[in-house]
Structures are given as structure tokens and as C-alpha cells.
Records
---
Amino acid sequence: MKSRHLARLDTMEDGFAGDFARLMVSPAQADPTLVSRVADIISAVSREGDKAVLRFTNDFDSREVTEVAQLALGSAELEAAAKAIDPVVHNALCAAAERIRSFHECQLTSTWQYEDADGSLLGQRISALDRVGIYVPGGQASYPSSVLMNAIPATVAGVTDIVMVAPAPKGEINPVVLAAAGLAGVTEVYTIGGAQAVAALAYGTESIGGVDKIVGPGNRYVAEAKRQVFGRVGIDMVAGPSEILIIADGSVDPKWLTLDMFAQAEHDEFAQAVLLSPDERYLDEIAARIAEQLPLMSRAEVIAKSLKNRGALIKVPDLDTAVRLSNRLAPEHLELAVAEPRALLDQITAAGAIFLGAMSSEALGDYCAGPNHVLPTAGSARFASPLGVYDFQRRSSVIEISPRGSLALGEIAGTLADAESLQAHGLSARARINGGS
């Protein structure tokens, strides 16, 4: 049965390779006009500081502020927001925060060192970044979950200053976002967004101190700004549209998986939802459920565009083939909706987050399971990892060479330096041999 809502593919049909390759293509990167516009904003903020931040914020967010102090929120505002929101929502935030914190505490790495046979001391020293920036989207949607996921690993790592920026169109910001900031340990909040917020964090202004690293999602202007300031500061990643791939054997309620696909597709029209199964009748059931349930969704138009643009139901001969295709796609989220998911786990080599079994919906990972929901997209799970405590830490090598060690290592290094025609390196390496004579 063909689906009018999304592509229906079969690995055994001619042309599958080309169709699957098209699924692997992420939406086009920022166009030259956007790149130029973002560069102009960053340049203005780096030159003019507060003045540029105020100008862009007033223009883009329909505000009338005259000084950056009007954009800053302190602990009193965060505490007031926590008291003002629905207690049920506040309790949910607290529960999610505790689970996220517990998971990330397991990622803490200690400084270590050892002494080799010659008595030289070698090791690694771990220290937290001093100051990081957290970008939180605003405008059409607000994401308190992103506050928790970005800020809590930083607090667990030991970051001293966590600066949150979030747009506040017409001066309004979701109080749940502010309550989440208080719970997560955010130390400064500025109600600014867009490329100008990224630039302010990267370069600093008269009122906003620069940071060491910027993390958090945003629109295409924010993503492009992060790309352009990388090198001056660190960034987590340049995130693309969200993705889910589901491997299903027919053992999980098709309504559940239909909703899992919708949950991803409702992010935006370029999000991707793909399901692979060896069971043709099960794929037919999923297609029927999509047609039945789609009109009931509040974001039905966005979901429909997403499924049509980048969604697919794919017939595979077996689960091993499904795993091979998944590893090629390297999805942000992977659901193993099969009777024995742990049997497939060792075969998975590239995925941002892996959800095992019928009860593990991707939406739980978005909010409160514990692992981070900031994940590599657009196939970058082939080489990148979820955001974690390690993203907020520095690693420094420690080297203390003993007199005995300098004899052996000096000659080894000198020989290699000679082979590379680096005379001063060789002389330096050998200088301490025999007391420098």
C-alpha cells in the first residue's frame, strides 16, 4: 500500500539506493545572504558592543530598551517565576532536573597521573571551563527542557558562571524557562536572542562578559552565528533539523510508533521521521495510522510537510539490513522497537541516542529520562557525541621528566627531530643529556 503522506520504499526495488541517498541529504546550509547578514551583525556587536545589542534587540524583538541592564534578570526574577508557575509544572521540572543531574554526575572524570619506569611523572589534569553561554530559543516556542539539558552538565562539571540568553519578543519570556534556569544553576540571564546574542557572548560587550563556550539550539541565524564565532569561542555543534529513525519488527503497537514519528515531525517541516521494518503489513498499518491520526494533531500542517519532505516507510528483508541502513544514516534518535532490542544494540555504531524496546519513547529522552537531548544531527553521529559534562571541561597534559628519563627521551626526541630537519628541536631535546654538556 502506497502512502500519500510520506515516501514508501523497498530495499529490493530498483532505484532504492538513490532514494535512500536522498534521505541522507540534510537541508541546504545557510544561503549566502544569511551568511552575510549574520556576519554584519557579529561585526557590529564586536565593534559597538552594547549599542549594537540594543539596536538589534529593539528591531528584531519589538522592544524599546535603552540600556542592557533592562535586558538582565537576576535571581529574584527567577525565584518569582518558580513561585508563579503551575506547581505541577514546577514539580515536573524538579523531577526532570534531578534525573538529568544524576545521569551527568556519572560522566565526571578525575585528574590522573602515573610514574613511569624512569621516575618521570605523566598525567592529565581536568578543570572546568570558567564561563559558558547557554542559548535558549524563544519566540514561537519556548524550551525549558533545553535550559536543563544545557545548564545542568555545566554545573556538574563545575563551571562558575553560566550565562543564559533567550529572546523575549515584546519583552515577554516564558516563566517556566526562568524557573528552569533557577533550578539548573544559571548565574546570569539576558533577554536577548538571535545572532546578536551569540556575538555578545563570543566577544563580550561593556555590560555582558564574554564566555569560553556557547551551547544550545536556535534558529538558522543562531546556528550560522555559532559557526562564524567558532574559534574565538568553543561551541557544542551546529545543529540541523531533528531526526528519528525507528527499526520495528511489528511487536510494538503501531499507534505508539506513529506518535513517535509525529513527535519528531512536529518540530519543523525539515525534521525527519523514518521507520524501517521487514513486515509489509505492519508498514501498511503504520501508514493507515498516520492517515487516521494526522488530522487530530495541533501541528498537523507542520507534521504533514515534514513527512512529505523527509519522511519514509522502508521495507527491509531483515533486521540486520535495517541496522546497516541505520548506521549509514547515523540518526540523531534511534528507536529499536523490537522484541529483543539488546540483541541489536552491539550492532549499532552510529546514533546520537538509542532507545531500547517498546516502552522507550524518544519523547522521554527529550524531557526527563536523564541522558542529554542535545545530540548530533545530519549524520554527524558518525563522529560526534551527545552534549555532556566533558563538553564543559578542559584537559591539560602533565609532564615532569626525571633526570634518568631525560637521557633516554632526549636521544629519542633528538633523533626524530633530526629526521624532521628541525635543528633547534634536536638541540633542545639533547641539551639536558649529560648535564647539558
Note: Residues 7-27+242-369 form a domain with the Rossmann fold fold (CATH 3.40.50.1980).
---
Amino acid sequence: MKSNYDVIVIGSGPGGLAAAIAAKENGADDVLIIERDIELGGILLQCIHNGFGLQLFNEDMPGPTYAQYYIDKVKDHGVETLMDTMVLDISPQREVFAINKDLGYLDLQAKAIVLAMGCRERTRAQILLPGARPAGVYTAGTAQRFVNVEGHMPGNKFVILGSGDIGMIMARRLTIEGAQVERVLEILPYLSGLTRNYVQCLLDYGIPLQKHRTVNRIIGRDRVEAIEAVTVDEKWQPVPGTKEIIPCDTLLLSVGLIPENELSKKAGVLLDPITNGPFVDDRFMTNVPGIFAAGNVVQVYDLVDWVTEAGFTAGKGAAQFALAEKLETGEEIPLKAGENIRYVVPHKLDKNHLAEEQVRLQMRAITPIEERVLVTVEDQNGEVVAKKGEPYARPGEIITLAIKPKAYEAVQKATSLTVNVRKR
């Protein structure tokens, strides 16, 4: 195989596939995808439920079908793929070091790199869950792979901690397979996943959701026998007199996802402590020239369609960088999280790039507002340069706002922009 490429994409989930396609379509001749698994598609291969493609195709697809569409396009575009290969290190000079059981140790050079490693689940250790350490404690994604790919039921009687999307989807899946899902516990006072999953996966199947509740203790020696649930106050402290023993043989954790950025840090990429993903501009380029990031490695998305769109943007930028050896950049405008906004992606806008095409901002609210809200982008003087109405704002659902051409003149005059969400 070659040792020099225009663009190397690390990861073949929806973001990586889209980045490789976009790189090819924008003039990059030699494009390589490196994937540690034996198949392209990433996490989509185990997501056999519907809900994919609604934004991009106006269709309701299962995950493998959605993935196959882009896998076919990757092959049609002549993108080279290297499977069952682990990337060990990346240098700021865009050198990629990897290992493959057949090819051995690989030293590859890229003109541009797209980081598309996705995200991983929080584990029991990361949330400091107390109690015994018996068998029967899994992350929701691990259970999803057991059931959907390996045909193995991890238990019979479940409690799910966390109302993340994977946990709610698995509550439905396990019920369909004949298991008993006792309830879903959520430490927060609001849902942490999409409302549609709450309706379709919990309400439709009669599975209770209890907010302000968490697991206080795991009970069992060899196998989980029960968990002790407890109500918590606004500071997440146990409320006296609210403990309850819930018999079960399996506890699933759906307590958040973390962008996978160990490789990013090795390359000198700076990470946002709020998102745990790279700081990126509106082309999804990181602080390291020629290194781009796409999809859940930047922020944890609600919809795979948005991951794909981010991949297209990053792949196009990577191709442009590879062909020109640099990008023509102008003055940067930092984007700040304002009232009731946790973070904004991208983190900054390039004035030169802004004139070329529409830029979409994505953000999450800090606390839910269950009534109509107004999302605004304001300059350093408090002048509104872009705005959008929404029926509500919820932390579990990304808010999007496009900066359209009619706003370009006002944005060009700004030295900084702040995004706010307020009641209308």
C-alpha cells in the first residue's frame, strides 16, 4: 500500500464515511479510511432500530441501511480502506502511526487528517457507582451489541440507570425480546435523551421513568440480585427515607457519552472542557493546521444525519487544505455561550469562509424551557444578527440556527458573537 495520502480519515462511522466521500468529491485523489473494526459503518451496524435518515433522506431507516448507503458511496468513489487496524499515534505534522496484523507497523503521511473516532459510553467507574461488583452490570451500548449482533440476552430482569437515548431504545428492545424492564431511573429532573424516544420506547411500552432517582447501591455477590434506588435533591444528595430495593439481575448504564479524543490530544489538538471534543472552526478544522474533526468526536449529536453533515463539511475542508497545503483564512470571530446555553459548535467563524456558504450553529440549553423560546446570535454590542424561534429548549435536544447570507454583513462587522436562548 501507499505511504502518502491526500486525506486520511480515522474511523468509519457516519462522520468518517461522509468525510471520505466529501474529500473525494472536492478533489482529493488519494483518500484512506483507517478502521479498527473488521467492517465499515461504526456503531450503526448494531443500531437495528429505525430513526435514521429523517433529515437527509426524509425516510425512516434502520442504522445498517443508513450506513450501507454511504459504504456503497465510499466504494464507488474509490476510497481506499484499511480495516482491523489500530491507530497508535498522530503527529502535528499529520504523520499517522498504526498497526495491522498483516501489514505490521505502518508509518503514513497525510496532507490532511479527519478525526472521526466517535464517542464512548461512561462506565460504572466514571460515575462512582457504589456497592458490590457482581456480574450483570453493563453499559447500554454493550447490551445492544449482545442482543442485536451476537444474539445473546444479557439478563432477564432489568433496571436502567439514565434516560439517554441508547438506554431508552434498549428498554424497548429488551421488552420486545421478552425481558422485564422494571424501570428507568434518571438522576436529573429532566430527560437526558430525545423526547421521541421517551414516547416510543418507554411510554408506548409502559416502562416507568423516575426522575430525581438514582442507584444508591448494587446488591449481589456473583450476579446482580437487586439495586437500591434513592431519590436525590437538587444537589444530587440522597433524600432520607426514600430508599427502595428493586429486585433485578441486570443493571444497564445509560449515563452519557464521551467523545473519543486520546489520539487528538497526542496530535496537540486542544479540547473544549465542556464538550470534551476539539475546538473547531466552521470548517471543523482544529487548532492544528490540516487536522479536522467530524461527528461525535467533536460533540455528542442527537441525530446521525447531523453527524453525516458534519463529516461532509470536515471532508471538504480537508480536501481544500490538502490541495492548497493551507486554507485561506481571514479574521476569526469567536462564538460564546450566553444565556441558558451550555456550549456552541463551531467555536469560531472565519470571515472569509462565511462569505462562501451558509454556516449552521449547534448548541445545547443548560436547563429546559417548556414554552416558546427565541434563540439569538448577538454581537459584542448586543445587536441581534441572527435569530430563530423554537417551541421549547431541552438539554437533551440540540438546537440549530443557520447564519444565512442576509446576516453576513452584520456578522462581518462583529468582533465576537454570543448565542442566547430566552423565553419569548
Note: The chain is about 20% helix and 30% strand.
---
Amino acid sequence: MSLTPTAGGPTRTILRVPDGTVQDAVWSPESRFLLFTVLKPGSDGQIYAARFLPGEDAPDGHWIAITRETYSSRTPRWSGDGKTIFYLSKVDGFWCIWGQHFDPVMGRAVGSPFAVYHFHDFKFSPDGLSAEHFNIAAAGDSLYLNVLQTRGTIWLGKLSRKSLFSSSQ
């Protein structure tokens, strides 16, 4: 994960994982923590938080696991007050929106993850979207996200068989 100063200057790496990648980074000015997803071979993502104070060169080296490695999770977002994390996860076997309360003073997740919205019907779900095409935004008391809606139609009709060769020539 790289950081580019808005006032100019060189881009520098601030988060690195051996044999993996870091993506989905989002910072909260209220909590002063950075959320990010770590992808490793054989894993669809685990979400972490790290304290990242203004003026620092990189986030704190102490990473706080927000989700378990055994559940695929991605696209973390902060609530407006920096005290709740929303993310997409397969905790229950489907890509659903989950939440996790967070104490920015103590720097830890509080309580158990909670379901925000279940997408257990593949006809209306983020499941068909690639990670690059899925996004969540939190504003006020709402979450905004894109999902894939699949519909189908079956047409019925009667086929009549016509000869390819006409008898009148």
C-alpha cells in the first residue's frame, strides 16, 4: 500500500505483507485509524486496523485483526463517527454486509460482528461482482453499495414445421 502526499513529493510504501497484498485502505479522521484488507494465497481477505496519526510516516506496526482469517472479508468502511466498521464478508457462506463496533481509544474491536444486511438470494447480491467492481460508502445512518440483480424471462410459443422445399415449382 502506497501513500502519495497531496502537497507533492515521492510516493512511498506504508504497508507491506510478505507473500500477500494490501488493498481497500480507508482512513478515519475521527478514529485516526486506517482500515485495510490483506490478501494472501488461499485467502479472500482479512480486515485489519492500524493507528495512523497525522504527520506520521506510516501506520503503527501493531495491526488489529477486525475479521477472522477463516472468513473471506473485504471492502471495509468507517461509520461517520469512526466507531463502527462495515464490510463485505462470507461469515455465513454468502457475501453479506457485516458490522463491527470499534473503540478507537483502546484500539480494539468491541463485541461480536453483527449482520447489517443479508444477501442470501443470488438474484440480488454483490456475489456476482468482482472485488474491483464492488464498493460501499457510509454516510449518516445509511450505507450505499452496488449489487448485481439477475433476472430471466422464459418465452413460450408453438413452433410449426414448414417444408424447406415447396411443392409448387
Note: Residues 2-149 form one domain.
